[in-house]
Specification:
α4 packs parallel to α16. By secondary structure, this protein is an alpha/beta fold. The chain contains 20 helices and 17 strands. The chain is globular. Helix content is 37%, strand content 17%. The strands form four sheets. It has a seven-stranded mixed beta sheet. It has a five-stranded parallel beta sheet with strand order 10-9-8-11-12. The structure holds iron/sulfur cluster. Iron/sulfur cluster binds next to α1.
């Protein structure tokens, strides 16, 4: 009998609903979840390729110790014993941002059992920088909900959101054509898929997006009778390459709208993603009825980072953990759902030189050598788990297909922890951590504005590649990546 099973796409942090047609253990086809309030059935090309996670011919199905196939029991026993042999300071754990909330919660517990704070989320460095800025205190700033975004009168978009998260096109169009006078303002150095829909395109000098936002923040704050902001608009206008009167008008228009959302898309070409995330939130708190959202590259960036921050105080940042790998301070590494050598080719030699590397992944890695244990990973489509998406909503999904030889990260960690771990309890614990949120880092607006004024323009900002949303082995295994990227 043919059944329909719901799931979500995690190839960006919108978390669009998707559907699969199944018959018994077989997944027959991808389908469309038209009742899903977020995407109403739409999927972008990457969303459609979720199906490949289930039937890809290169999926791993058996653990591998070095070049030898092994049973799960032998593999887990070996790793449990070996990881305990190292000094806690020389052990590290990396958690992919495609991991579930339960995965992150149990990884935090494993770090506790190993006695290490060397644990960090792996994600696009621009996303991690933006996440750091999103923790700076901006009292009263509210997260936008995707399903409500189409009813706004104004959108202020920093970056090319329609390449990062194409399914948002419907919302952008709902705003643009919803009512005469509605505004879609786009800050981007390039003409992009998003800027085609702009009513005002602020074509800034590459890298200066944070400074454009600072200028808008100044106008909005002073127009609304709030704090005077010490920022020389004439100077800013020269640096960002946009006439002062255009900046002022864009800010006034956004402030005058009865409701609006600021959408931020982090990118490595932006000089300070953390400042952009902070200014976006400050703007949301100052302008009446405005909200903000950061559209990350991978589905559970917000959930994984929030859980690690909430459960392992003082844990390493991803950048610091990579520095420890580079500096040779780590001897053993557990990499959950990420091919670190593919994301950071400059570290490949170092990773190969570690005494112990265990990596859960969907695909084989060229890294395979004697020190590496490879753990075949179940994808989110073969798991029942929870995720926290860009707009803060929690999605609990059931497996759309059975696992074939694979385990989820949560199951792998539970086996390593050795206790009888209750995955349902881990989900509830993760939920409580996300709901509580992490305490904000104190931030001085004056200080952040002075940092923004140090930004100088870059030479250029190449356009986003429509198929490339991460330098990750997962992505490179997909057909659409290979046909669109000759070096893939
Ligand atoms: S917009 Fe994002 S979540 Fe939606 S289908 Fe595309 S990649 Fe997946």
């Amino acid at each position: 009998m043919v059944e329909k099973k719901r799931s979500i796409c995690l190839f960006c942090s919108l978390g669009c609903g998707t559907m699969f047609r199944t018959a018994g253990e077989h997944v027959l086809a991808i389908d469309y979840d038209r009742d899903n309030p977020v995407n109403q059935g739409s999927l972008c090309p990457r969303g459609n390729y979720n199906f490949e996670l289930l039937n890809h011919p290169c999926r791993l199905a058996e653990p591998q110790i070095g070049k030898r196939k092994a049973s799960w029991r032998e593999t887990i026993d070996l790793l449990r014993r070996r990881f305990m042999e190292f000094d806690p300071d020389s052990v590290g754990i990396v958690v992919s941002s495609l991991s579930s909330n339960e995965d992150a919660c149990l990884a935090a517990k494993l770090a506790g059992q190993l006695g290490t704070k060397n644990i960090a989320a792996a994600a696009d460095p621009a996303d991690l920088e933006a996440y750091a800025g999103s923790k700076w205190e901006a009292e009263g700033a509210k997260l936008a909900r995707i399903e409500k975004m189409g009813k706004e009168e104004a959108l202020l978009i920093i970056g090319d959101v329609l390449t990062r998260s194409p399914v948002l096109a419907k919302r952008v169009n709902q705003v643009k054509y919803g009512k005469r006078g509605n505004r879609v303002t786009v800050i981007d150095p390039n003409q992009t898929h998003t800027s085609w829909f702009a009513t005002t395109h602020l074509k800034n000098q590459p890298g200066t997006e944070a400074l454009v936002l600072a200028a808008i923040l100044k106008v909005v704050s002073e127009e609304s009778g709030k704090a005077r902001i010490d920022l020389n608009l004439e100077k800013v206008s020269k640096t960002v390459g946009i006439p002062q009167e255009v900046l002022v008008k864009a800010a006034r228009d956004f402030n005058a709208a009865a409701s609006g959302t600021i959408i931020f898309v982090p990118r490595e070409t932006i000089a300070r993603n953390d400042l952009c995330a902070y200014f976006a939130r400050m703007l949301a708190s100052l302008s009446p009825n405005k909200k903000y959202i950061t559209c990350y590259g991978f589905g559970n960036t917000l959930g994984v980072n929030t859980i690690l921050d909430g459960m392992v105080s003082g844990h390493l940042s991803s950048a610091d953990l990579l520095k420890k790998v580079e500096g040779g301070q780590l001897k053993a590494l557990l990499i959950l759902g990420e091919d670190l050598a593919a994301s950071h080719p400059e570290l490949e030699k170092r990773i190969r030189g570690l005494e112990l590397v265990a990596m859960s992944n969907y695909f084989l890695t060229p890294l395979t050598d004697d020190a590496l244990t490879l753990l075949p990973l179940a994808s989110h489509l073969e798991n029942s788990a929870s995720y926290t998406l860009a707009d803060g909503r929690r999605e609990r999904i059931d497996a759309a297909a059975p696992k074939v030889g694979t385990m989820s990260n949560a199951e792998i960690i539970a086996a390593l922890l050795g206790d009888k771990v209750d995955l349902g309890q881990a989900d509830q614990e993760a939920k409580a951590v996300v709901e509580k949120g992490v305490p904000s880092d104190k931030a001085e607006l004056k200080q952040k504005l002075s940092e923004a004024q140090k930004i100088t323009a870059r030479k250029d900002a190449p356009e986003l590649n429509i198929t490339h949303f991460g330098n990750n082995r997962l992505v490179r295994n997909f057909f659409w990546y290979r046909v669109n990227n000759k070096h893939g």
